[in-house]
Inverse folding.
């Protein structure tokens, strides 16, 4: 009996270890895929209301819209969610004590131009089991969950975290935390580049000076520069020891400050990336072909043909070209839009008025 209990415990520990290892690998894959391009971001009705409230209160765009303008994220909304949002605008207007026309104007002028509207057919919403689990909690969130599942890893902007637990949304602020992390990454990367550019400034200046001098003096400029460099070395050697020490100290102090700033900025970027990875909807345990195609188009800078999509997909999720072409054409009035002959984008970014009945 003792042996049986021991075996059961060992097997239990092994299962826990295996699960932890799988979760760790999934986090690593999520982290990796977030570096592939702009981060897909899915809007839920609850977060639209929060964003409108922020914009009215502060007279400025919410961070989620501002960061989308920078190209760091791309905003998507499921058609059912957009219709739900539009229908709830009168209620939002009453709650926020503002004219309905004001909210409609803000949404139409500031938000909709940055939104791609995706309508996922009913028979494709259950491809990822996580979206079905959300449907069991709240059928109204099914459409948003289906889109977020297909685009994962992605940011899900919602305040209603309880219904999105199957998508690893555990806090009401998780979507906002992800947007803050994107801002922190952007700021940190800019600081890293600035630190790296400081030593290069003098090099660039020297390079431009040399180019100008070469045009004026010809190849002999190099001989002159060699003499100047040698003169500088000679001049340094002629300095008293205390001055040499001050020169060395000044140079080393500048170098120390640069190294410290680089380390600080790099650490901030690393921390922000970890925060982002923990705040997004993680990748599916098994990537479906539909998810691979949808996410590939979500990240694409330009429209893509069926052949281009197949060429860019991993072997494990690569469909045959002709079936994919037929699928894209069959769904080009819902999920995809054909912007050139045979070239598709995800969602509709033009003519959104017909989506909201205006």
């Amino acid at each position: 009996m003792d042996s049986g209990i021991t075996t059961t415990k060992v097997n239990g520990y092994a299962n826990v270890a295996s699960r932890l290892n799988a979760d760790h690998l999934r986090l690593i894959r999520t982290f990796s895929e977030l570096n592939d391009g702009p981060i897909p971001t899915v809007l839920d009705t609850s977060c639209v209301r929060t964003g409108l409230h922020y914009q009215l209160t502060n007279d400025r765009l919410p961070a989620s819209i501002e960061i989308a303008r920078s190209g760091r994220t791309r905003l998507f909304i499921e058609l059912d969610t957009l219709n739900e949002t539009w229908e709830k605008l009168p209620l939002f207007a009453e709650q926020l004590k503002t004219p309905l026309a004001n909210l409609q104007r803000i949404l139409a002028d500031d938000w909709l131009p940055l939104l791609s509207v995706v309508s996922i057919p009913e028979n494709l919403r259950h491809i990822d089991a996580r979206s079905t689990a959300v449907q069991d909690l709240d059928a109204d969130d099914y459409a948003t969950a289906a889109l977020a599942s297909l685009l994962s890893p992605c940011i899900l902007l919602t305040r209603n975290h309880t219904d999105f637990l199957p998508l690893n949304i555990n806090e009401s602020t998780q979507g906002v935390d992800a947007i803050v992390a994107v801002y922190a990454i952007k700021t940190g990367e800019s600081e890293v580049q600035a630190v790296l550019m400081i030593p290069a400034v003098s090099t660039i200046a020297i390079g431009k000076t040399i180019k100008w001098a070469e045009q004026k003096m010809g190849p002999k400029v190099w001989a002159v520069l060699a003499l100047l460099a040698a003169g500088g070395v000679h001049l340094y050697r002629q300095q008293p020891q205390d001055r040499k020490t001050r020169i060395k100290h000044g140079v080393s102090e500048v170098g120390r400050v640069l190294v410290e700033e680089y380390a600080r900025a790099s650490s901030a970027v690393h921390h922000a990336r970890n925060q982002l990875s923990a705040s997004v909807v993680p990748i599916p345990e098994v990537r479906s072909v539909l998810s691979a195609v949808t996410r590939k188009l979500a990240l694409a800078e330009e429209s893509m043909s069926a052949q281009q999509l197949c060429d860019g997909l991993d072997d494990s999720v690569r469909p045959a070209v002709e079936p994919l072409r037929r699928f894209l054409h069959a769904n080009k009035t819902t999920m995809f839009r054909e912007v050139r002959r045979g070239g598709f984008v995800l969602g509709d970014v033009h003519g959104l008025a017909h989506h909201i009945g205006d």
The first strand starts at residue 39 and ends at 43. The beta strands are 39-43, 73-78, 115-118, 155-157, 336-340, 343-346.
